[in-house]
Design a protein that fits this description.
Radius of gyration: 22 Å
Helix content: 40-55%
InterPro entries: Ptyr_pPase, Ptyr_pPase_sf
Order of helices and strands: HHEHEHHHEHHEHHH
CATH architecture: 3-Layer(aba) Sandwich
Protein name: Phosphotyrosine protein phosphatase I domain-containing protein
CATH superfamily: Response regulator
Number of domains: 1
Largest sheet: 4 strands, parallel
CATH topology: Rossmann fold
Amino acid sequence: MAGHCATSSLQQNSASSSQRPSGCNAVQCEKSETVSTRLWRDRWRYMRSESARTNLGLPKADWHRYHLQILFVDRTDTVRARVATGLFERVAEWNGYGRALYPSAAGVDAEGGAPNVATTASLLSMAGMLGIRAKIFAAQRERFDYDDFDRHDIIVAMDDSVLEDILGIAGGPSDKAWYAPRCTTLTAFSRYCGGLILRGGGSGVLEPELRAIVAPVLQRACNAAGISRPNLGSGPEEWNMMVEDIVVACAGLVQYLADAYPPDLPEYDPV
């Protein structure tokens, strides 16, 4: 499409002024075409997200406050939800949504206090290797509670058992019916990007370092059913699998949320 725009512009420059729309110089025509192309692309992306929401049962993203609060939930708020928070933050920043998508972590069985020293040391080392903020792993553990349903736009469980416990906290049938559409598992987004997750350049959803991590395992990661739960005694294969699956799923989640931004939403005006 970009090449077509450039060709059209050159043709317009070589044509007589009578061939241009009245009152439109070459620059204005090119700018108008660019805006039209962008609107078409945004509408196509929005329709893709709506189709996926219907077919995959994904939660609706309500962008009318111009930002979204995403809560990642695991069992104890120690490893998986925190890794997901950090990687989601990194992917969102790469895609220009660092100031619009706000992730945090909690655990359905989390107890107060920070993780033990050995776990924290291992996680801080992982943070350095993955290029995510160390503060995420040093924070106090947060327990998921009923109020979190209203504090966050979308609640993302690390596996089906955690999702079941989240919905159990919702309470009675009416509350569960109200909150369930905003709850899902992280791997529900794993297939959203498909092979496009490996696309490079400025339009790629992942930066080169993260693309290199998932490229050899993309087919497996796209079909993951839940995020594995390694511990300090687990071998590197289990830890690597957890990271790979989270990267692929977070890429799908960020792309889905970006696509779901309504093309007709008015420009943000802080005043």
